[in-house]
Amino acid sequence: MKKHKHYVGLDVHKDTIVVAIAEAGRGGEVRSYGTIPNTLYAFERLIAKIGGEAVELHVAYEAGPTGFVLYRWMKKHGVDCIVVAPSRIPQSAGPRQKTDHRDAVQLARLHRAGELTAIHVPDETDEAIRDLTRARLDAVADRTRARNRLKGFLLRHGYRYPGTANWSEAHMRYLRGMELPSPIHKSVLEEYLLTIDQAVERVDRLEDLIEVKAAQWRFYPAVQALMCLRGFKLTAATVLVAELGDVKRFAHPRQLMGFLGLVPKENSTGQARRLGSITKTGNTQARWILIEAAHHAFHPPNVSAPLALRQSGQPEPYKALSWKAQSRLHKRGWHLLKRGLMKQKVVTALARELAGFVWALLSQVPSPV
């Protein structure tokens, strides 16, 4: 029996899903089907109604805050589905009306034309590790905010820490031993200190959990390989691998650099070529980790004792590539600084090159089963 192809566009929201269907063929009808509740029960009834033995469904919806629940349900039940990058959806020029029904119809029409770019969807375990690392990043941000609130409170009342190492044990002893003239202010200080202690404990708990769960993860060999590079301890390596997944899906390091938003914007025409700032598209967390690691390039190449311990037992090609990255990035970084470039621009350029070394290193790691 010849099957009829139907291309389904879904505009997914927290409470509702707007559905549109495009029939196969250049002159096939494209119509808005309606709106259903965003529940698996309602969605299962929808698929049963618009599908069937004589219909082949191809579904597309935008990546967003609702995650990949629908995608995984469809894959489990044999329905072809892609999750598309919102920033890569072609848009018509000029003024336009935007409604949920129009968005669903546009997704269905573009999916039929093959104009949509699918994103990589991690499996459930990989997503769980990614959620764990992102929870740790959120905890670090909360700790920083709590510390800044306390510093702002003390500065408003004329108190400045005379030492140099903020948030060290000596600094915390100084804060806990402070005598403020008002008992109200002393109570406020204690509340701020309690919040900081809770935030520090939360970060420590999450880092301990990352250490345990990363060792059981199928991508742990990639984490160990990445730890051969200077600037990548366990947490940073786990964050980067969790955000990137299998780098073998990038055919060339330039694709990885573009995915991370580390390539410059370009507006060229004819003989004129204009480059701007980096695009900052793609994965924010992975880009941030690379930029933080790139700061180590300004130190002379050196295999320190902690780095040697992390490299222990790893293949020699990993170590050789690590040394090559250190030498290359150090030389490149100081060359750009001597040319008068801003340090932050230099760090960004080094992060872009470091992404290439990460791709070369992780491409040597055997793919997980």
Structural class: alpha/beta
Strand content: 5-15%
Tell me, briefly, the overall form.
globular
- H/E series: EEEHEHEHHHHHHHEEHHHH
Percent helix, as a range, is 40-55%
- Our measurement of the CA-to-CA distance between the termini, rounded to an integer number of angstroms, reads 37 Å
Supply the number of structural domains. 3
The average pLDDT value, as a whole number, equals: 93
- Low-confidence segments, given as residue ranges, are none
Work out the helix count: 13
Strand arrangement, major sheet: 3-2-1-4-5
Rounded to the nearest angstrom, the radius of gyration is 26 Å
Number of strands: 7
What kind of sheet is the major sheet? 5 strands, mixed
Supply database-style keywords.
369 residues, alpha/beta, Nucleotidyltransferase, domain 5, 3 domains, five-stranded mixed β-sheet, two-stranded antiparallel sheet, 7 strands, 52% helix
Give the secondary structure arrangement, pairings included.
Blueprint: E1 4-12, E2 16-23, E3 30-37, H1 40-50, E4 55-62, H2 69-76, E5 80-84, H3 100-113, H4 124-156, H5 169-176, H6 183-215, H7 220-226, H8 234-244, H9 253-259, E6 264-266, E7 275-278, H10 284-294, H11 305-311, H12 316-338, H13 343-362
Parallel strand pairs: 1-4, 4-5
Antiparallel strand pairs: 1-2, 2-3, 6-7
Helix pairs in contact: 4-6, 4-8, 7-8, 8-10, 9-13, 10-13, 12-13
